Amino acid sequence: MLAVAAGSHLVSSWAKLYSDQKAVSAAVTYLHFVGILMGGGFAVVADRTALRLSPDRDADWLAELTRLATVHRWVIAGLAVSAASGVLMMLADLHTYTTSVVFWTKMGLIVVLIGNGWMKLRAEAEVRGATGGGSGASGGGWRRLRRTAVTSLVLWLVILLAGTILNASA
């Protein structure tokens, strides 16, 4: 009971600080945008690169695919910053967000985005030949890599749209 009361007090104190101090709300919103720009920006560039890669066109596709793998840590860092700031924004207006269909749709889409990212990592590994007994240049791996890249692009854009709608309705 004490923990619930303390948690409730902490959330209401945060909500008051967030609403009363424009610098605090601006800083949290800024961090949220930085996370989206960093994670989404790197992801979009990586997805575009993945869509352009082909063993038929690029003699050095394996090296390019290896460079592409270094982007994932930036995408994950961006998602982490965006998630942390998003939690702070949600706690500032808990009732509005927890009862919003758009909010929960956005959260579901983010889960799908993370799952798609995991599938993209597996497709990249398959194409590099790290799985499947060295048959990385097979068509199946390339098709999965392209499909996950297209899915990633679509999800980033739809999540951004959901966030825009959520912001307009909050």
Can you offer a commentary on this structure?
The chain is an all-alpha fold. The protein is built from seven helices and no strands.
Question: In a few lines, what is going on in this structure?
Answer:
The chain is mainly α and 170 residues long. The protein contains seven helices and no strands. About 4% of the residues have low confidence.
Strand-pairing-aware structural class: mainly alpha
The CA-CA distance between the termini, in Å, is 30 Å
Mean pLDDT: 89
User: What order do the SSEs take from the amino end to the carboxyl end, as H and E?
Assistant: HHHHHHH
Q: Tell me the major beta sheet.
A: none
Overall spatial form? elongated
Topology:
Blueprint: H1 2-20, H2 22-52, H3 61-69, H4 72-92, H5 94-98, H6 101-128, H7 139-169
Helix pairs in contact: 1-4, 2-4, 2-7, 3-6, 6-7
Structural features:
0% strand; 7 helices; 170 residues; single chain
